[in-house]
Amino acid sequence: MVDQGSSARDSWATVVGIDEAGYGPLLGPLVVSAVAFDVPVSFLKSLPDPAAGPDFWALLRASVARKPGRREHRLAVADSKKLHSRSAEGSNLTLLERAALTFLGVAGCTPGDLSALLARICPEVADKLAEYPWYAGTDLALPVAVEPTGLATQRNALAGDLRQAGIRFRGTWSEVLPEGHYNRLVGATHNKAVVLFGRTIRLVQRIAEDLGPRPLGIWVDRQGGRTGYRRPLMTAYPDARFEVLEESPERSGYRLAHRSATWVIRFVQKGEDHHLPVALASIFSKYLRELLMVCFNRYWCAQVPGLRPTAGYYQDGQRFLADIGAAVNRLHVDRQSLVRML
Q1: 94-106 and 276-303 helices, crossing angle to 10°
Q2: Residue 3 phi/psi, 5° resolution?
């Protein structure tokens, strides 16, 4: 437990978690998100294993659980794949939405619709989405799956737990790449891993600009099978003093010393299972992607009566493309704006 009295007079560092949703699908956007928590610097220095980072599940155990359960009243924060379910009736967003909107509420953001949510956490994407008929002019009222009164109760519990722990939730930042924009970047770089890394660096830059000079501890879910990130990090930050802390199959860590602050960036295998901020970032990424897929499916279902919606992954995506083929031709849709490069 962080001492509340000392945290008020201590200097702060920011702990960041980053994860993506939609890296592999055939249809729909790629979304990469980051979340940030402020913690006292002295608390981070006191950790027995700095590479493991703070255990936010333990710090927030009165209001947050590591996994969902029928009798679990606390907020479930875990890998988004464990919280999101699909059935023949469609997508169940309840657990994703409850976690995302509760944390946003603690940060003072209560969006009434998808447009407001995007304007808060990914303001540059509106003009991009306007280029796609399945996203342009569409919106969703929020919340879509949970009761607002239940959100208020969990928001109050989480806010009290954060105060008791002496930490602050600063908010979330997202990068959304619609299909055509994704394809253009992959075509230019010839490597979708480079595109994902680029979105990650953009998130770090946005956080640094919004929060100002301060120490950053950044945990990123490992991107593919890569274990070495030294070269792309040095390319992204050529003016920083650079130190490799470790490179192993489980974790790769780097220290970047700028003139204004020092950052430590770690890429962790299955990061969402070990770090609450990474799990929460995965929730925001999945939640945004699923909301946009609702818009995507509504558009195409209006064009093709009886069409079964898709989650966008390869096998079902191929089925979906075959089902909408005539409509794609009739509407003169450019496949480069619809079908993702793999």
Answers
A1: 120
A2: -70, 120
What are the pLDDT digits (tens) for 161-203? 999 999 999 999 999 999 999 999 999 999 999 999 999 999 9
CA distance 133 to 124: 18
Nearest-10 crossing angle of helices 192-211, 179-189:
110
Peptide bond into 50 cis (omega under 30): no
8 A C-beta contact, residue 99 and residue 88: no
Let me know if 99 is exposed, middle or buried by CB neighbors in 10 A (0-12, 13-18, 19+): buried
CA distance 252 to 314: 30
| 316 token code pair | 């079902």
Per-residue pLDDT tens for 96-124?
A: 999 999 999 999 999 999 999 999 999 99
pLDDT score, position 86: 61
Q: Where are the domains of the chain?
A: 4-337
Q: d(Cα 78, Cα 96) in Å, to the nearest integer?
A: 9
Question: What is the distance between the alpha carbons of residues 192 and 228, in angstroms, rounded to a whole number?
Answer: 17
Contact 261, 61 (CB under 8 A): no
CA 329, 332, 338, 341 torsion: positive or negative?
positive
Whether pTM > 0.85 for this model: the answer is: yes
The alpha helices in the chain, defined as continuous H runs, are: 4-9, 41-45, 56-59, 80-83, 94-106, 114-121, 125-129, 148-165, 179-189, 192-211, 230-236, 271-274, 276-303, 314-323, 325-330
| Sheet strands side by side (includes 168-177) | 168-177, 30-40, 12-21, 216-221, 262-268, 251-257, 241-247
CATH match of 4-337 with 1.20.120.140: no
